[in-house]
Every structure is written in structure tokens, then in C-alpha cells.
Amino acid sequence: MSEDIDITELETPELLELIQDDLYDGLAEEVVASVNELLARGMTPYDLLNQGLVAGMDIVGVDFRDGILFVPEVLMAAKAMKAGMEILRPLLVETGAPQMGTLVIGTVKGDIHDIGKNLVSMMMEGAGFNVINLGINTDVEKFLEAVREHKPEILGMSAMLTTTMPYMGTVIEALEQEGLRDQLLVLVGGAPLNDAFAEEIRADAYCRDAAVGVETAKKLLAIKRGQLN
Amino acid sequence: MPSGRKGQVRVGTNLLQAARELGVELESICGGKQTCGKCQVIIEEGYFPKHGLTSRSDHVTDLSALEREYDQQHPLDGRRLACAAQVLGDLLVTVPEESQAHKQVIAKAATERPIDVDPAIKQVYVEVKPAELGDPRGDWERLAQALEDQWQLRDLVIDPKTLITLQSKLREGEFAVTVTIWQDREILRLQPGYQDGVFGLAVDVGSTTVVAHLCDLRTGEVLGTQSAMNPQVRFGEDLMSRISYINSEPQGLFRMNRSIIKTLNDLAEKAASEAGFTLDEITDVVIVGNTVMHHILLGIDPVQLGMAPFALATYSAQDLKARDLGLNLNAACRVHTLPLIAGHVGADNVGVMLAEAPGEQDGISLIVDVGTNAEIILGDRTQVLVASSPTGPAFEGAQITHGQRAAPGAVDRVRIDLDTLEPRIKLIGHADWISPGSPPPPIKATGICGSGIIEAVAELFLAGIINSRGHFNQGSAVSSPRILLDGRTAAYQLVDADLTASGSPILITQEDVRAIQLAKAALYAGTKLLMDQRGVKTVDRIILAGAFGTFIDPFHAMVLGLIPDCDLEHVVAVGNAAGDGARLALLNRGMREKAVRMARSATYVETPLETKFQDEFVAALNIPHATHKFPHLAGRLPESPEGNKRQPRSRLRSRQE
């Protein structure tokens, strides 16, 4: 299909729109081609990230939340996003563009469910965050170490069992004791959780799915930054 | 209450708990977390002279935040979630039909399988030298000598409870006794004179259903089968909620252990009295169950099974005394539990292996036990692999908008006409198919159970209403008043309001389809990993096991992509294979050793840790699968119409320009 379109002939706004649509369709090669074309035209990596890739993933996120897209399509989109990001990331660092923020995420100790947490990771990367994925079966020490090392704005925790979700509270208590809690937004998710549980363990929010996770992260971060400014 | 129960409960007790205390079981899938919405009740208003009380809606606590949230998504119409509403004063509560916990429909019945009868329990008749002056030996020593002389049985021990009866039984029989011996080692019972008849119980403790077969240990005959719902369901539907209950309630383990022991005593009592004898006649019991049921039954805290690395207290077979567990059978009765394999692969799976013996077949057998945790067994003579895949409770009706367990009133069969898109359904408890326009059945539909939702989703796909990605097709290609559009998604109206107990239609929503996709993908991906590890591309036969298994239609299971491609003639549902395994081990002691060999030689695969699991899982989310072919369904699947392909957004748009 890609031979139908000559991207060099498209106006820049159209090409940005094409990136968004190709992301939606999970077409990694096409996204890469368009990103390179726009960079060649002199667009800044930061504008390209926000107006192309992030805007495209926003649409994916909304349709995932609404049940129109499902996990396989979202993963395809995230892979296309990642392909585009690989080109942009070094340029963003080089140009000193403002960072969206860093997320440290892991499935808590005793729990070996990986997929839901990986989906959140990819969606957050898609939204422009720098993501440190600690994997599964993550204990307090590992969370604390990662928080100290990477100084993330957000800590994400996942649990899929009613028996393992209390461990999220254990992590938060440890963060409080170490004086690390206040600098962080703590977001939690997983099938057996709900808002009341998140409140009980003093997390900042419960996120029902990966799309809600991205929305919540952006919203709470904006509020926090607004207050800090 | 329709049950007519009444009584006093403490202020602050929630209605779910109150109902339980008064002996009324309500449906509850989430175990009281205010999320499943199954325990809805109606608070009656006014003075009720019959009961001598004034019931008012403010005699319970206000709507909780979670309840409000539930109400917004699924209007409660003034009903309350019993687990949320706490008693503040006098109340008259009506439990609507769909909220009552029904007696389960149990698809478990002992099948006739050839069993070589060689039980652990034997009876022998001996004549003992009477006591006399000058012989200082005790009666026990004289009996032991007689057994050695007449039966060549040496080094026997006698159960201390049996020893107590020794002298009176010997004299009652004028020094002739019938001796019941376990494993040629231990004397369990003495009966005066010559007697014959030894009996045992084979028990399968499932998470939702408990089944006991009373067997004649000489003939192998099944004298009676009794079943009941597992009473632990009220503490939590799935295994993890039960472990959580134990973690949070100091008395939790004790309560759950007592409740299952009581149920086993009740089942034994019923089976024995129907067969016309007393519990004293039962001297051997074999029990199978999943790892959590096994641990709780033995009084072992299952906390370690609630989290990785899922450490078992022991995976060995156990030989115990029934009395130590609190079972009121013969005072010296034995209990044998089959071995376990891994944290989530239990004695029930060993029972299935014993009954189906995949390791004795030439072709590759795939056995799936579908439930909240699906267990998968794959293998042949060369190697048998096992895994457990977390499918979640969707197949048991939970997490489904109108889901329920298999009970009277549940939709369990669904057909959708390819042209009119009209449904035909069957309800549990009513034999005939129900079509729109056919005379209303005598019972009302209350919800949809696991087999119903599997068939419904497969039929929606076959009819082209949903595409292979599980999304309700858009546009005019499929149009019917039954397809209720909701933004860019939709729902299918399966049962009209006038046929349901609640008076609201029963729908299959986009979210329901998604829940089933996730559950079936976990099962399929687990199966695929075992096939890869065994190095096979196809399987030769598929066995759908479990109470649920007897109801799953092989064709629909394959269309959905729950199981891999296979000749449909070689896909069978076997019912309670775990219980059959328990019966084999009860009637043949060699089977107990065989079970241990099978358990120890099976290769356990921790599927979620396999690096390929995520890719396999994602590919298996499609219906039936993103890439795998199903040659045995050729001609029966919809020909990938335009709606089944993803329509690229802009690239298509620009071509149209």
C-alpha cells in the first residue's frame, strides 16, 4: 500500500497526519520513513515527537480505552512508535528538548504476571515517557534502588492476584520511611484492584487499564508541575 | 426473604454476611469486594405485621462509593449490593431470583471404566487361640500369631482405637474374628465371627463442586455418588480470594477447613445411608483436589500458594487417618491423597493423568481442564508435560456482564442464524431450544454461564457480527435490531427482557467478548508452549476435562480458538476425570504408586516465565488465532470478508481520493 503514497509530495501537516494514521495501523517502516522525511525538512525532533508520534498514540489510547482496539493492535502501534522513537531519542537528547518524564514500573514481589505491565510500559513510552521496566517479582529493595538511581517522576506497580496486591502497600510504606514518597507519583493497576484499594495503600491513583494509566500520568504530572511552578 | 429466614444480626453486619449467618446463600463472585454486582437485594419499605417489624431503606448504611460507581455503569434501580449495605436496624430483605446462589448443576458422574480391583484394604478371617492360664501373652499377640500362622501376615500393627475394641470383639466372636487390614500392615477393624464387605470413598474436592463416590472395595462397584457445592465458595469464588480470606481473617483457615470437612461428612452420610449401611463400614478414602483445596483440607495454611514461587508444603502423596481430619467414618479409617505436581498443578490433575493415561498412548494427547485456572497436560509415551494457565474466572461466568455459574436458568447453549441474526438459546433446567417467538418457557433466564458465553462468542463470530479481532463489525454489512450500537462499539441482545428473571435483556457486550478473548488466549498460549517444548505441530486427540468440560461443545471451543486444530471426532469431553482417577486409586493400590511415578516424571512448565509466552498470548487473542490455521474447520469459518481485515485509516482514505 505504501507505494500508493509518495511522502515527499505531502505537505508537512498531511505528513504528520499520515504518521498518526500509520501508528494506528501499526506500520513501523512507514512511520520511520515519514519521521526521516520530516527531519530532513528541518522539523525539530521535539515538535515531531509531539505533533506526530504522541498525538498518534493518543488516538490509539482513546480507541483502546473505548474497546475499539485490543491488545494486539495496541502492541503493533507501540512497536511502530518505538521504531520512530529510536530515531528521535538521540536527537532529543542532543537538542536538549524538554523531557516528558521518567517512569519506573514493575510487577510486585510474588507476582509473575508480565503482559499487562508491559502494555502500560509501551503505552507510556508511546506518550513520550522514559520507561524503566523492572520486570516481574520485584521486591521493595529493587523498587527503592531504581527510584534512587533513576529519580523518576512516576512509580508504577502492577499486581494481578488478590494475594500479591497488598505488597504494593509495603512498597509505599518503605518509600515513605526512606523519604522518597513525596517526590513521586505512585500509580497502581491490575485486575483485582480498585480505587478504594489505591486510596487505602496511599497510592496516588488506580488506573483501570494502560490507556487510563497514560491519561492519569499526564494529568497528575501536569497538576504537580503546575503547583511547583 | 423468599427463604422465610429471619433472625438477629449485629449492627454493622453487611447483608451478605447477615444472609449467610441466617443460612441464605447469595451469589457472590468477588467475595464481597463490591465489584461483581451479583449479590443485589431489595430492601422492603414499611411496616410488616407478619414479621412485626418496620423495614426502611435508611436501616442500612448509605450507598458506598464503590456501589455508586457500580450503579453508574449498571443501574441498580434502587437495589443494594448486599456486601456493601450494613445493617443499622430492622429490615425485610427480598432476594431476587438471580441473586440466589443456586444448587449447582453437576456434570459429574462416575463413568464405567475397567478397573483391576486390588484395594489397599483387605479382610481376613482368623481363629485365635483362646487365652488360658500359663500363656502370659496378650490377646493382641495371640491374634498376631494367628494372622502369621494362617495368613502369613507378619509385622502387623494395630490402630490404637482398634486395640481398645480387641478383647470384646474376640470374645463376642468366640475367638473368631474378621480383620480389616490396610496395606498388609495395619489392622483397622475387628468384627466378631465371619463378616464380609469393605467400602471406601473416592472424593474430588473441586473449587466449586465436591463429589464423593461410595465404592464396594471387593467388586469395584460404585454404590452411590453424592455431590454438593463447595461451601468455601461463600468465602471467595476463586482460589486467590480464598487465600486472601485466610490471610485477612484469623479464623479463616479454620472456618474453611471445617466447612469442607462438614461437607465431606454430609456426603459420606448420605451415600452410606442410601446404600443401607453406617459410616462405620467406610475404612478407606482417596481424595484428589487442586493444591489449595488439598492444603486447606489438610489444615495447612495455603498462604505460600498465593504468591510466587508458589511453594507447596509437600508434593508427596499422604497417608493419614480420617479421624485426624475430623471425618466421622470408621474410627481407624485411612485417607490417601494423591501427589501434587507444582504450585498450581494438583492432585486433581494427577487424577486426570491416572484416568486418561496420556503417557501410555502412541499419539499426542492434549488434556485441558477448563476452569479459573486451566491446567494443561500434553504428551505421549515419550514425555508428558504439564502447565497451569491463569485464564481468570471468565469461563465460569464471572467478569461477564450477565455472567453466572452453571445453574438453573443460565443460558448454556446458543445458536445464531446466519441470515436473520436471530438467536436460539437453551436454558439449564429446560430441555427445549427457545427461539424468538416460541412460547415462553416455564423458567426465566437468569444469566449466561461459561459454556453459553463460549458458544455465544463463537456464534457471533460465525455470523459475522464480530470480526476475528473480536470487535463488533461496523457499518451496514451486518444489521439487526439485536445489535445495539454504543458509540463505535456494540452489544448483542441475546435474551429479550420478557424472558428474563430480572426483566432486563441479557446482552453480550464488547467487554464480555474481550474478557473471553483474554481467557482463551491464556489457555491456547499455554498449550502452544507445551506443544513447542514437545516438538509437535499438531495433536492427535483432545480431552476437555472438568465439570465444565462435559458441557463445552468441541466445535465451538475450536472456532473460538480455545483449543488447537484437531479432527473434531477426536475431541471429547470426559466429565470428572479427576474423580475417576481418585476411584482408580481407591480400588487399586498399584495405582497409588503409579500416580506417584506419573507425578514425578511429568515435566512441569512455568508458562508465564517462558519468553515466548507474551507473543503466543497476543497472537492467540484473535478468533480463532492470528496466524494458526484450522484445517479441520475448513468451510465452516467465515470467509474473511472485508470487515475482518483492518482498514488502514489514512492510506485507504488517500486511495479513495
Textual characterization of the structure:
The complex is a heterodimer of chains A (229) and B (657). Chain A has 229 residues and is an alpha/beta fold. Chain A has two domains: 2-95, Methionine synthase domain (Methyltransferase, Methionine Synthase (B12-binding Domains), Chain A, domain 1, Orthogonal Bundle), CATH 1.10.1240.10; 102-228, 3-Layer(aba) Sandwich (Rossmann fold). In chain A, 58% of the residues lie in helices and 10% in strands. Chain A has nine helices and five strands; from the N terminus they run ααααβαβαβαβαβα. Chain A has a five-stranded parallel sheet, with helices on both faces. The radius of gyration of chain A is 18 Å and the shape is elongated. The mean pLDDT of chain A is 92. By secondary structure, chain B is an alpha/beta fold. Among the domains of chain B are: 15-99, Ubiquitin-like (UB roll) (Roll); 121-192, Ubiquitin-like (UB roll), CATH 3.10.20.880; 354-393 and 517-633, Nucleotidyltransferase, domain 5, CATH 3.30.420; 395-512, no CATH class. Helices cover 27% and strands 21% of the residues of chain B. Chain B has 16 helices and 27 strands. In chain B, the strands form seven sheets. A six-stranded mixed sheet of chain B has the order 12-11-10-13-15-14, with helices on both faces. In chain B, α9 packs across α13 (577-587). The longest helix of chain B is centred in the last third of the chain and has 25 residues, at 510-534. The model of chain B is unreliable at 103-110 and 652-657 (pLDDT under 50). Chains A and B meet through α1 and α4 of A and α2, α5, α11, α15 and α16 of B.
